[in-house]
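Journal club prep, notes for RB
We'll compare a predicted complex against what the paper describes. Inputs for the 5-amino-5-deoxy-1-O-phosphono-D-mannitol case:
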Amino acid sequence: MCGIVGAVAKDNVVPVLLEGLLRLEYRGYDSAGLVVSNNSLHRVRTTGRVAELVKLVDEQQAEGSAGIAHTRWATHGAPSERNAHPHVSGEETKIAVVHNGIIENHEAMRKRLQADGYEFVSDTDTEVIAHLVAHHLKQTADLLKAVCLSIAELQGAYAIVVMEEVRPDRIIVARNGAPLLLGLGEEGNYAASDASALLKVTRNMIYLEEGDVAELDRDNYRIVNCLNDPLGEPVERAVHESDLSNEAIEMGPYDHFMQKEIFEQPGAVANTLEMVFNAQSISPNLFGSTAEKIFSDTDSLLILACGTSYHAGLVAQYWLETVAGMPCNVEIASEYRYRDPVANPRTLVVGISQSGETADTLAALSYAKKLGHQHSLAICNVAESALIRQTDLRFLTRAGPEIGVASTKAFTTQLASLLLLTVTLAKMRNKLSVEHEQQMIKALRHLPAAVQSSLQVEPEVAVWAERFSEKHHALFLGRGVHYPIAMEGALKLKEISYIHAEAYAAGELKHGPLALVDSEMPVVAIAPNDQLLGKLKSNLQEVHARGGELYVFADADSQIQESENLHVIRLAEHAGLLSPILHTIPLQLLAYHVALNKGTDVDKPRNLAKAVTVE
Ligand code: M6R
């Protein structure tokens, strides 16, 4: 999704802006641009990568002590230089704007501004902001006021940064529904949509709140809030020291971030469960100081999430019902937010998100609260995210920054956290004997080593991947708690290799999808040695009998033998409740190696973004 960086400093800010954009690249984008001010506004834009922008900036010797920069993920208008940010307006009062999010009333605003004589040269909703601010600037002669008056007229969720040619010593920023923070540095002051963009220059961050507008110059800043007063009431916001790791964002010895993140999983899971490793027993306090009280009032769960995080929720549903005996609904956030569900005040709402910035998940959570749900828990990988700030309880997955668009270590750490939640609730509901609790702690301690052992199958998976590269479709089968793992495997494959892949609960095959099976359709099956293995084997027979080519990930004790058109990779012996986590790893590796063979952009698959901050 789009990324924003703004800077005003003693020296040339171009290196800070470009470094920030490079650090935001992982979010996904299709064009990039910047404006710096040096007597006049100098704008450079490109549809290429940030590396291309770096080259252009260098050739054109663009520099200045204030500037704004942007990576754009197209929503309104094609990815083109004309639509790339910053957008500018005005002749005498020339201003430039970068923007994340969506302006919902842009069509009406565009008509009104055109009637006032403003000429539009792009298809974007952002250009409306540029002209609207220029329009108010003419009346007020004060950029901060002009921004405040403009946001009072804009509908939607957005974050913007604005600068003005005649005042090259300051930038104005505004937040309304999309993340934006200030960075306070020794050499200057900065703004960005994500803390990682500013780590090279400062760790002192202010997270702006809804309706905040701030003015930054190189030594000072001031913040006003425009929610109740269109001209803004002065407000104070706390300064936080970010503890994001700088190094975690480097690729190190790996070829891709996704590869690095797959292999980081033993460590990521260990970090996530660290508090449990030294504990003698499991305590609800791991989820927050009020968790014990909230959990004892809870009689059911509602999980809201999107994509991979939704799949983690589906796995948790099996665990919560089986181990803790708790009813659990799992909903796709973008669907939930537009339904009329019946709220139960004793239902704990759980938002799962890697980024903590997914617009649909945030909106679904707010909607659930509005409907009458009283308590909420975030399972999230970003401590400084909107989701974490929106819930009563929180559990950080501590996977470290995930850069590859395809979620890997975030998923397995979400599963580890959800298993911990399950065990905690089971204990509180007297569903877990002391002996069973100790066994669970032991199993969780073993999880990082078990994940490491699943990674060992990579060479065999790489051989299978060669056969997939020529295929156009694939089916993934699983049963029970491994059905969502099949869904996750299919999502990984389609997302990065562009092979059409669908997952089915294996028992559903003969109700339709079996018609698709022939020698051209690879069928991937997850075959753990659990109580459904016998049923699954019958389903595999149905595929085999119709000439389908089966690729089976089996537990060592699953007793599935290789034969013609039936290939087997064996993991370790069945790992009980941990099994879905361990069966995820080879599916990630399969998608990664197929994508490598196909030469796709593994870390930045086409059309996708890392943090989906628009609806
Ligand atoms: O940051 P979130 O976990 O809220 O993101 C949700 C989805 O956009 C995300 O999981 C997406 O499905 C992944 N790219 C899949 O690999």
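Talking point for the session: The longest strand covers residues 167-176.
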